[in-house]
Structure formats: C-alpha cells, structure tokens
Write a structure and sequence with these properties.
Elements (H helix, E strand, L loop, with lengths): L2 H26 L3 E3 L1 H11 L1 H22 L4 E10 L6 E4 L17 E4 L5 E14 L1 H68 L5 H36 L7 E3 L3 H10 L13 H21 L5 E14 L9 E12 L7 H67 L5 H35 L4
Helix pairs in contact: 2-4, 3-4, 4-5, 4-7, 4-9, 6-9, 7-8, 8-9
Length: about 450
Amino acid sequence: MKPGNIKLRGLLYAFCLWASTTTIEAQTGDTLSFTLEQAIEYASVHAYEKINSEYDVASAKKKIWETIASGLPQVDFSAQYNHSIDVPVSLLPAEIIPEDMRPPGIGSGDKIPVSFGTAYDGSYSLSVSQMIFNGSYFVGLQATQVFLDLTRHQATKTEIEVRDAVAKACYLVLSAEENIKAFNENLEVNKALLQETEALYESGFRESMDVSQLKLMVRESEKQILEIKRNQEVAMAVLRFSMGLNENQPIKLTEDFAALSQEAISGEVKKSGWSPEEHIDFKLASTNVKSEKLQLKNLRVQYLPKINAFYTYQKTGYGDEWNIFGDEWYKAQFVGLSVSVPIFSSGMRNAQAMQQKLAWEKSKNIRTQTMQQIKTSGLTALTDYNSAIDQYEIASESKVLALDIYEKTKTRFSNGMTGSFELTQQQGQYIQAQINHVRAALAVLNFRNAYLKATGKL
C-alpha cells in the first residue's frame, strides 16, 4: 500500500472517530454514552498509554533520519573576537638581537621581554566534513528500521493492554448495574412484605418478631445496594482513567450485561483458528533477535577503518585598535582525509563481540521460549474459558432453583404457613445465588478476554 493511501486512511479514521464522539456528546449533553466497542475505540486514541506509545513511534521515525543525516555532509561555522587586556609576553635571549637594538642596560646572558601579539584579534572559519567509509553507519541504518519495528510492536502491545483494561472495567461497571437492578427489585419486595406484615401484626395475625425480621431484611437490602454503588463508582473511575477521560467526566454504558454474557457463552471466538507466529509477543521476540544480531554486526565492523574527508576555510585579523574589521585579514585553507584504523585493544573488542554473541544466542532462546509460552497460554486460556462457561451454567440453574424456593417460601409466609426466619434464610440463599450468577457471568467475560488476548485476537 502506498504511504499516501495509509495517511489518507488514517485521516479518515480519525475524522470518523471524532465525528462519532461529537455525535455522542451532542446527544447526551454533559454525559458521554458508549457501547463496549465505542469505549474501546475511544481508548485506542485517547488513553494515556496509547498517546505515549504514539510519541515513541514518532521519536523512532526521527531517529531514522538522525542516523541517515550523520552520514551526509556536516557544515560548521565558528567565529571568535578577542581583546587581550594584557598582551602575552615572551622572553628572548639578548644574543639574538643586534647590540644597537637592545634596550639600555641589556647585555649578553640577559632576557629581553617581547610581545608578539596584538591587543585585538579575531577569526572565523567554515568547515565541511564528509564520511567516506564507516561500517557502523551502514549497520546503524539497518538497526534504525529494526528499532522502528520494535517500537511499533510495543505500541501494538500497549493498545492490546488498553483494550483489555477498558473491557474489564466495562464488565465491572455493567455487573454492578446488574446487581443493583436485582437488589432494587428485592428491596421493593421486602418493603411490600414489611408493609403487609405490619398490617397483619396490627390485626393480631403476626408476631412483632416477624415485623422486626422484615425491617432487618429491608435494611440489609439497602446496605447491599449502597456497597454495590460504591464499587460501581470505583469501577467507573478506573474506566474513565483507562479511556483517558477526565476524572469528573460523567459517562454511561449502553451495553446490556445479559446480552454480553450470552454472546460470551456462545463461544463463537473459539471457532476460528489462530497462529502463534502472529502473536504480538512472538513478533517482539523475533524483532529483538534481529536487534541483537545487528549489535553483534556493529561490534565486528569496528575492526574496519574509518575514513572521513574534510575542508576548512579560515580568516584571521589582528590590530591594536578595537575595530580590526577594516584591517587586512589573512586567509588559510585546509583539505584532506582522516583515516582511523584500530590496531590493538588487548582483546577488549573481541570480549565485547563475544558478549554480544551470547546476548544474540540468548535472544534466540527467548524467542523459542516465547513461542512455547504463547501455545501454553492459549491452551490454558481456552481451558479456563470453557470452565467458566460450565460454572456459569451451574450458577444459572442454581439461581432459578433458589428463586423458585424463595417465591414458594414468600407465598407460604404470606399465608401464615412459615415464619420470618425461614423467609430470611431463603432470601439470603437467593441473593447469594444472584451474586454468584453475576460473578460467573463476569468470569466468562473476563476469561473470554483472556483467551482473545492469549491467541492474539484482542
């Protein structure tokens, strides 16, 4: 695909995402509404970790040009202007100066102070250098591309982690809403039973203990709802942070927890195959092998000579007055080659190369280890996913049975055939079954995510 097409697709994608986000804001005012997929896609652009990874990729691209530019002509300009407050003095033997030019009182064996400099001097120079041959430069060009690939893989892995974190946070929020919904219904039932029991107590058909027991049940239901709401607030805060939203930004999830659970239980994601070679961890390990090999190659080319060409143009001016720019300036030019050949390092370079060769061999072993780990993680994730589905089916059946028992106990209690203690027990059993059912559904969703992540499909 041409680079222009990639950029165009990126711009279109960014515009569509912006438009969809703007639509959401326009529809809901201050509250942003998201489906699960919308929340994930929003986080893929705005999450803090995602933005940081994009900076890393942009920096890696600049690193490529930095490396290329180091082998192109380098031009430097320098200038200097000096004022010698005290002109340096040199001592000359009196013998080198004719007697008629010597200062009074100076004889053979004496030293005569002489100033060779001027009070003011200045210079400027222009230098150009060009690398002719440097083995590290050509290896560096290859290494920068590998470094860019490594950075891009890291960015992809970061996006996967962001998607996983957002999905888990959404599941927690939705599961809390599901529990709140169920416990609110239970609270209304308890209030109705309390009102009915109070009326029967006033008519003499119920004991005061039954009224107290139902009041306790009402208070316990209210307490459970408050605890779940607090947990939901924490989960919502985690979700906002994972998405890159402001901590005070109100959001709402429009996804249905039961529908998500049924989709996860269907196991559609297990029907398609997966390739361990396409997993991001294997790509990272493979790219790291290339990086280590290039570092070894770079150490080996250190044995080769380094050749550079240079040219310098310089002018210098002198004077005893501060304005030396009107005086004559003296020109100098230099052109040449510099050659640096490594001869002997007492085995230092060889030791460095051997260390790097071991690092390269280690990276290849890590790549093999990573492949086996990916396969094992995929198998483990599939087992956990299947087990979670089985547990969910058991929890669903238990919930139906507990509800049936609770409904029959309520009927018996209303007809005066059983007491409030048995009703409390059966309600507690049903509440626990409801909690277990939601917990099992949450486990299915999380283990499906873990399976998708382990198989590189998330």
